[in-house]
């Protein structure tokens, strides 16, 4: 991962909350008050399934009561949507990193994280302590349909679980009871086993601030007492973020980056293959590897096997929301972008479980090839009973990550200097190549002219004393002329001496020969 690759990790890494594994029963009831929405957080047993509803058990790891004809869509526990048959009403469960005070973030920033959301107006907002906030919005979507949105956020470890009731404004009051029951019925599947995280549902870990030990490029919250290894690593290929944060007993750890990955791969092209390059091999000594584009799900499973050996993949989830973010990257515009994102769950032979998330992205320019890279690799491994706690630690690390602005400014200047030096080198190299080509063409043209002279009996002569050049006919090897005489007065001879010693003669040079 080059310097820009490191910055991409910094920018997109916070979005990749791959470990929202909230084990334990959590319920947020919505009271049925027209024009308002109030979520009351409390722990309680599963609700009875009322008439007109069925219990839906989702492979992603949750259960919910589903009204007749409603549909469930999810790309993991962080992105869940239960929508009405006409698509106008929905109950959403989201996971988002929180920056700053929860109520302020919910009021101003949450809806901006929803792809396709139109302009919105905050109607009301309130909080129930520092970790619970609610807000009511009026929202206009792309079809200018007025909607009302009730959102309740519960924050834990820098990550908010958001419960959303959404319906057309003119039907919001009548839809609210049904949406309330859907959200109240939501349960994470592991909660039914009776397993509970430490400290009554909240992580028992305490956290300290960790600063990148090499260049102080970034900082993040990590569990106190855990061992930190790696950080921002600089090499001839650029900079790469790769680190591991391990529990004292070594059985659980968080990780980001993968040092086995090259900074980027080169896409095969007809030109590159015609030059003898082969897929899967470096394009030169120390050069990048030529490899066709791989989606994140495929690449991730290969990385898991490479990193953890005999790991069993238990679930693979595409992340189209993250893929859309990658596709909208302005750096990728003007070419043919390729992007994918996935979360992968796995189990190790010793019984520990893990989760890895990653993206792959790149661009191909016509038939000239292109490049792609693997980014945002992060995840955790832990014994199954500690998966929730470790997952929340990863969410806290990702959500609390901050770039050092002084480092960023210095790195930007460094990249500008490197770019300027590269441009100078490129311009010098271009001039040198052009000069070489021009000299080669001139030499070839002179050689061709000489051949034509020989075949046509033409001799081109130059007077070294005056700089004059002219042509004459003949087959002699040497030529002389009387000083200051007309060019056609040249006298040829096969022996290199003055053929008329009594005259002041000048030895002429044969152009292209002498």
Number of strands: 29
Shape: elongated
How would a crystallographer describe the biggest sheet?
9 strands, mixed
Kindly provide the radius of gyration, computed on alpha-carbon positions and rounded to a whole number of angstroms. Answer: 36 Å
* Low-pLDDT residue intervals, each spanning 5 or more residues: 1-44, 190-202, 330-336
Percent strand equals 35-45%
Instruction: Give the class from helix and strand content and strand pairing.
Output: alpha+beta
Task: Describe the model.
This protein is an alpha+beta fold. The protein has eight helices and 29 strands. The protein is elongated.
Write the layout of secondary structure elements.
Layout: H1 3-12, E1 27-31, E2 38-42, E3 53-58, E4 62-67, E5 71-74, E6 79-83, E7 90-97, H2 102-108, E8 120-127, E9 132-140, E10 146-156, E11 159-168, H3 172-185, E12 187-188, E13 207-211, E14 218-223, E15 227-235, E16 238-246, E17 253-256, E18 265-267, H4 270-274, E19 289-290, H5 296-308, E20 312-318, H6 320-327, E21 336-347, E22 353-364, E23 370-382, H7 387-400, E24 402-403, H8 405-456, E25 458-462, E26 469-473, E27 478-482, E28 491-493, E29 505-510
Parallel strand pairs: 18-19
Antiparallel strand pairs: 1-2, 3-4, 4-12, 5-6, 6-7, 7-11, 8-9, 9-10, 10-11, 13-14, 14-24, 15-16, 16-17, 17-23, 18-23, 20-21, 21-22, 22-23, 25-26, 25-29, 27-28, 27-29
